[in-house]
Design a protein that fits this description.
The complex is a heterodimer of chains A (114) and B (115).
Chain A: E1 4-7, E2 10-13, E3 19-25, E4 31-37, E5 43-50, E6 53-56, E7 64-67, E8 75-78, E9 87-94, E10 104-105, E11 109-113
Chain B: E1 3-5, E2 10-14, E3 19-21, E4 24-26, E5 32-39, E6 46-52, E7 60-61, E8 64-69, E9 74-79, E10 88-96, E11 104-105, E12 109-114
Parallel strand pairs in B: 2-12
Antiparallel strand pairs in B: 1-4, 3-9, 5-6, 5-10, 7-8, 8-9, 10-11, 10-12
The chains are: A mainly beta (114), B mainly beta (115).
């Protein structure tokens, strides 16, 4: 069974479009995250969402908005896509109560902007 | 904010040999958690090993072990008897015990295993 699943795995779209990436975890974790991995492989936190509290990284443009319908889902909506948004986006989850627990990652979504 | 530095963008090792990947971090906290993740070409992020800062004993998982030097804020990963399947990007990550809940990642080290 997949612990953290993201859809789609690949997303190719035109500049200016609006798109969403879905993430679901079946681990019963309290906290979910979105990371952006750039072309140099650097993983940077975008958002973390814990029990209805959203923590936003200040460097993330407001075109990016996470939405959590419930504890098991954290979707990422991106408006007015730009060329610089091309990257691999990873969803992750962890059990906040135990900070020594690792984060479990999805397989990533490769977003390509034409 | 905490920072994590991996000073070796690329490393290579002969199959069956041992390689050490370095990681340093900057924090003012006394207790925290450190992790190594592996990212093969398939893009998955796979936990390799974890260390709790208050534990002096270095963590070990089969062929993987760490050299944790708390005073020096150093957390290196040693891979023994390297195998072809070890070829991947390796990321060092820090997590606070008290504040925030996200991981801070280093920039990664690309490991090549030479047959």
């Amino acid at each position: 069974d997949t612990a953290v699943s993201q859809t789609p795995k690949y997303l190719v779209t035109q500049m200016g479009n609006d798109k969403s990436i879905k993430c679901e975890q079946n681990l019963g974790h309290d906290t979910m995250y979105w990371y952006k991995q750039d072309s140099k492989k650097f993983l940077k936190i975008m958002f973390s969402y814990n029990n209805k509290e959203l923590i936003i990284n200040e460097t993330v443009p407001n075109r990016f908005s996470p939405k959590s319908p419930d504890k098991a889902h954290l979707n990422l909506h991106i408006n007015s896509l730009e060329l610089g948004d091309s990257a691999v986006y990873f969803c992750a989850s962890s059990q906040t109560g135990d900070r020594h627990q690792p984060q479990h990652f999805g397989d990533g979504t490769r977003l390509s902007i034409l | 904010a905490q920072t994590v530095t991996q000073s070796q963008p690329e490393m290579s090792v002969q199959e069956a040999e041992t390689v050490t990947l370095s990681c340093t971090y900057d924090t003012s906290e006394s207790d925290y958690y450190l992790f190594w993740y592996k990212q093969p070409p398939s893009r998955q992020m796979i936990l390799v090993i974890r260390q709790e800062a208050y534990k002096q004993q270095n963590a070990t998982e089969n062929r993987f072990s760490v050299n944790f030097q708390k005073a020096a804020k150093s957390f290196s990963l040693k891979i023994s008897d390297s195998q072809l399947g070890d070829a991947a990007m390796y990321f060092c990550a820090y997590r606070s015990k008290y504040t925030g809940n996200q991981f801070y990642f280093g920039t990664g080290t690309s490991l090549t295993v030479i047959p």
